[in-house]
Amino acid sequence: REPVDFLRSLHSQLLRSANENEPDFRNALLLEESRKRGENIPATTSYPGNLLYTEQAKYSEQAGRFLEAFARSQIKILIFEDFQNDNLGVYREVLEFLGVDASFQPRVVKLQAHRGVRFVKLANWLTYHGNKKKGALGRRAPSWLLDPVRRIMGKVFFEEAERPPLDPAFRRELAARFKPEVIRLSEVLGVDLVEKWGYDQV
After folding, report:
1. What angle do CA 169, 171, 173 make, to 5 degrees?
2. Rounded CA separation 135/130 (Å)
3. Which residues have CB under 8 Å from 119's CB, separation 6+?
């Protein structure tokens, strides 16, 4: 996925799952250096490495490891925007790659819209403590009690809404930062992602 959109989506996901407590995307990126030193890590996060956002966007390194370990004929790499624009077409490509019946027609539905967090600290606390693996409340409370609490939490603390547009100047700044990585990834995959993702305009 195009790096800037991917990192914004990752930030939203980590907020919802109680792994992030900084609601502002720009500020979360600015915290990376201190978090590398073990500072400003939310007590509720399960894996601090997830908070090093720009590390997650080093696609060329990650793809390169797979391509070194396996033959290209064994790997199918999908571009998110291709799948987004043509669900069924890319789905058929995957079936053909796996060598299974490509004529099957699935029902395509939108499963989850963007969900924002209204009250970050309180939502994080409840999400964390309601988790059966992490929080005492989750481990002790019976499911008949926790399940309705989670449903209420979902309505009170989370809202489905369009993600607000990123400040254009900040997007350009991030795109300039990630352009060398997009060029490297294009070379690794043999796909012109510079043009596909609009980085030729950066």
Report:
1. 70
2. 6
3. 157
- Could you tell me where the beta strands, DSSP code E, fall in the chain? 115-117, 158-160
Contact 44, 19 (CB under 8 A): yes
Backbone angles phi, psi at 144, to 5 degrees: -65, -25
Q: Two tokens at 119?
A: 């009250």
Along the 202 residues of the chain, how does pLDDT read in single tens digits? 999 999 999 998 898 888 899 999 999 999 999 999 999 999 888 889 999 999 999 999 999 999 999 999 999 999 999 999 999 999 999 999 999 999 988 887 776 556 666 556 666 656 655 555 555 555 666 665 656 766 666 666 666 666 788 999 999 999 999 999 999 999 999 999 999 999 999 9
The vertex-37 CA angle with 33 and 42, nearest 5°, equals 85
**Sign, CA torsion 14/16/20/25:** positive
Contacts from 175-181 at CB under 8 Å and sequence distance 24+?
175/4, 175/199, 175/202, 176/202, 177/54, 178/3, 178/4, 178/54, 178/57, 181/3, 181/57, 181/58, 181/59, 181/60
Cβ atoms 175, 202 nearer than 8 A = yes
Distance, CA of 168 to CA of 173 (rounded, Å)? 9
Tell me the C-alpha distance between 127 and 172, whole Å.
Answer: 34
pTM recorded for the entire structure: 0.76
